[in-house]
Amino acid sequence: MPPPPPGGAPAYGNPSHLLPPTLEPLITTWLTEDAPAFDIGGFVVGESPAEARLLCKSQGVLAGVPFFNETFRVLGCEVEWLVKEGELISGGGKKHVATVRGPARKILLGERVGLNVLARCSGIATQSKHLLTLLRSAGYPNTLAGTRKTTPGFRIAEKYAMLVGGCDPHRHSLSTMTMLKDNHIWAHSAHSSSSSSSASATTTAAAITASIQAARAAGGFSVKIEVECQTLEEAHTAAEAGADVVMLDNFSADEVRTAARSLKERWGEKVLVEVSGGLTEENAERYACEDVDVISSSSIHQGVRHVDFSLKVVQKGIGSGGVDGAGESVQV
Questions:
Q1: Is 270 a catalytic residue?
Q2: Potential cystine with 229: which of 128, 182, 234, 262 (Cβ 3.0-4.6 Å)?
């Protein structure tokens, strides 16, 4: 597989153009979760015209802009950005990155949802870019991908953030690529041995082959098949049976280099080699070698540190008040 284009998807277009025609159903779900009944605070402030400043209080890559915009569009507000998505916001102090205008109660209704999605997406984009930079510095030219270990109901936002950070989002669902993990192989083996099928699989190798054949019959030519392998022998078996991708799962760094070289020598570009299992910024560089096509790690999106944002309403006509960004509002 040729190396991925430098800069990832953002180098070739606006990642927001990848999103569905409307995010409104998703945004409405988030807003309803936060305000399932009476919004007493919103009643207190009413619908007088208001303005609020979005402040960034820690360093990070800005991501999640389309979700923030849609949150406030649904509520009848407008957002003006001073920083572009994908830009690194430097640390130190509070940076004014956007302004939200609209009815006061609507701004406050969207505040927490908007901040949550920005903080989460920006944290993922920041960590994605960080680990990718480490791997590039180690001479790794190929793909860094995330995983399917995403937050339920938030997957599209998290996958989007990985793209903004320059990484590959990996498969989006069970339907976009077939991944046969160890559980699939073992379960198929048990199923076939208890049935009268002539395709009975009595060994791991036979189970891998039979599982790939079944997946290919159902998915057809358009769905790639990846097989999670615990040994080099399993990886060769999967490749021989027609797997498009073999995953070396929980191999040591030395085992990865040996196995990847063996697979490339025998199968060439016919099979992609992915490495996964416990890879983080502390150890990923040790697994970096040209024979590995994909390094996948949930560390770029699971348990990442969020980027700190706040939304402060601009105080108007008040003689005294809080320091810029210090309280719940910004004095002018």
A1: no
A2: 234
